[in-house]
Automatic annotation (TrEMBL):
<dbReference type="InterPro" id="IPR029787">
    <property type="entry name" value="Nucleotide_cyclase"/>
</dbReference>
<dbReference type="Pfam" id="PF00990">
    <property type="entry name" value="GGDEF"/>
</dbReference>
<feature type="domain" description="GGDEF">
    <location>
        <begin position="16"/>
        <end position="131"/>
    </location>
</feature>
<dbReference type="GO" id="GO:1902201">
    <property type="term" value="P:negative regulation of bacterial-type flagellum-dependent cell motility"/>
</dbReference>
<dbReference type="GO" id="GO:0052621">
    <property type="term" value="F:diguanylate cyclase activity"/>
</dbReference>
<dbReference type="InterPro" id="IPR050469">
    <property type="entry name" value="Diguanylate_Cyclase"/>
</dbReference>
<dbReference type="InterPro" id="IPR043128">
    <property type="entry name" value="Rev_trsase/Diguanyl_cyclase"/>
</dbReference>
<dbReference type="GO" id="GO:0043709">
    <property type="term" value="P:cell adhesion involved in single-species biofilm formation"/>
</dbReference>
<dbReference type="InterPro" id="IPR000160">
    <property type="entry name" value="GGDEF_dom"/>
</dbReference>
<dbReference type="GO" id="GO:0005886">
    <property type="term" value="C:plasma membrane"/>
</dbReference>
<protein>
    <recommendedName>
        <fullName>GGDEF domain-containing protein</fullName>
    </recommendedName>
</protein>
Amino acid sequence: MVELEREIARARRSEQPLVLAFLDVDGLKAINDAGGHAAGDRTLLDVADACRAKLRSHDLVIRYGGDEFVCVLSGLDLSAAAKRFALVNAALAQAPDPGSVTIGLAQLRPADSPRELLARADSALYAERQP
């Protein structure tokens, strides 16, 4: 959470947009069940590698827990961030063991606390999961 607070403060000082992405690895439980935890671990590494390859070097990529990642993209709006994450999913689809992530995006608002921003991204992720 310290990194997120730092990025929010930097975005406010520089008056630049900031987007927080909440990523959920699709089907990780099924991957673990079918191929064991080693297969699940490879999938998590594939997601981290795809994020590092398709996001910018200064974007934060943090494993949040289980099958979830949080990414912080400074200087981008929602549309530009969505395009970056489309590249992440395209890279995952081309991996030796193809995968994907579902993404919830939230752009920083003037009065947002880190928790509020994270909660909005989590809600956006939940909305993406709905049929």
